[in-house]
Amino acid sequence: MKTIRQLASQFGLSRSALLYYDRLGLLRPDYRTSAGHRLYSAEDEARLARICELRTAGLPLSEIDAVLEPSRQLRAPLGAALNRRLSELNHEIAALRRQQQVAMALLCDQSAAGRSRIMTKERWVQLLTACGLDEDDRARWHREFEQLSPEAHQDFLESLGLPAPEIKAIRRWSASVPAQPSQTVKLPKRPAPPSPKS
């Protein structure tokens, strides 16, 4: 058994957070000392670990409560809650990308692009070209990406800051041309490492 301070310390939480979880019915210890102090069992500890894991995934406490509901009939499906959260995260990420692009444009300083983590279409093409991929290879890359993960392809194109009509055109084209499963990308040969001097 652990006291509230011990359990809070173990999970990096405040004592008041555990009291709040108790008020919500999210984590109610079954045991108390003769003085009325809460004592947490191994089951309570495991439940708190799960609560913290779901909070780290960004689920609100109300959804965590529904997911951890003891009654199977009333319990909300975890997969549905996590899929909702992923959808929210995708929208938040897209909004942050737009903010990043606007901030870059407002800076009007080309050197700012080098200091940021933003990848532009031009930088991406430059990177692929430096790796030895020509225009046909890049087209095949888009087709494969669209076929294997269309939503991620959309997210990637948005992350480059491409306008919506260009993204739509790339995705339409990528989806209309079947990918060549047997083709592989030819990369330039690396030079042999220098031989050790004897």
Globally, the shape reads: elongated
Largest beta-sheet details: 3 strands, antiparallel
Biggest sheet, spatial arrangement of strands: 1-3-2
What name does the CATH topology of the largest domain carry? Multidrug-efflux Transporter Regulator, Chain: A, Domain 2
CATH architecture of the largest domain: Orthogonal Bundle
Descriptive overview:
The chain has helices at residues 4-11, 15-24, 42-56, 61-67, 78-107, 110-115, 121-130, 135-148, 150-159, 164-176, and strands at residues 2-3, 31-32, 38-40. With 198 residues, the protein is mostly helical. It folds into two domains: 2-76, Multidrug-efflux Transporter Regulator, Chain: A, Domain 2, CATH 1.10.1660.10; 119-186, no CATH class. A three-stranded antiparallel beta sheet has the order 1-3-2. Helix 8 (135-148) packs across helix 9 (150-159) and helix 8 (135-148) crosses helix 10. It is elongated. The model is unreliable at 182-190 (pLDDT under 50).
Defining traits:
198 residues, single chain, mainly alpha, 3 strands, three-stranded antiparallel sheet, Multidrug-efflux Transporter Regulator, Chain: A, Domain 2, 2 domains, 10 helices
Summarize the structure.
62% of the residues lie in helices and 4% in strands. The chain is mostly helical. It folds into 2 domains: 2-76, Orthogonal Bundle (Multidrug-efflux Transporter Regulator, Chain: A, Domain 2), CATH 1.10.1660.10; 119-186, no CATH class.
List the helices and strands and how they pair.
Blueprint: E1 2-3, H1 4-11, H2 15-24, E2 31-32, E3 38-40, H3 42-56, H4 61-67, H5 78-107, H6 110-115, H7 121-130, H8 135-148, H9 150-159, H10 164-176
Antiparallel strand pairs: 1-3, 2-3
Helix pairs in contact: 8-9, 8-10
